[in-house]
Hints:
The chain is mainly α. It has one domain (2-90). Helix content is 93%, strand content 0%. The protein is built from three helices and no strands. Helix 2 (8-31) runs antiparallel to helix 3 (37-119).
Amino acid sequence: xxxxxxxxxxxxxxxxxxxxxxxxxxxxxxxxxxxxxxxxxxxxxxxxxxxxxxxxxxxxxxxxxxxxxxxxxxxxxxxxxxxxxxxxxxxxxxxxxxxxxxxxxxxxxxxxxxxxxxxx
Length: 120
């Protein structure tokens, strides 16, 4: 899918920022002696904003893919209906030709019987 290919860099960036936010938050909470909860909250909030933006972009791309696949599905469904109609017509033609062949074979047998009578 093209959405998966186009979102790969954005996905890696979102994951990287998320990991950095977790590491920074852990550092500010456990490794510093100052009261850095406000800075920790800001880092987590920034990471959350990045996560929300990434999800928005990803959902938009996926909706585009879904719309494209739906249109392709509609097109293929139309082609399938046309093909099925053609197949039905071809089957009917085969049945007509079968009947003509059977009739021609019976006519041939009659003619061969007449030829045998005339030869005898």
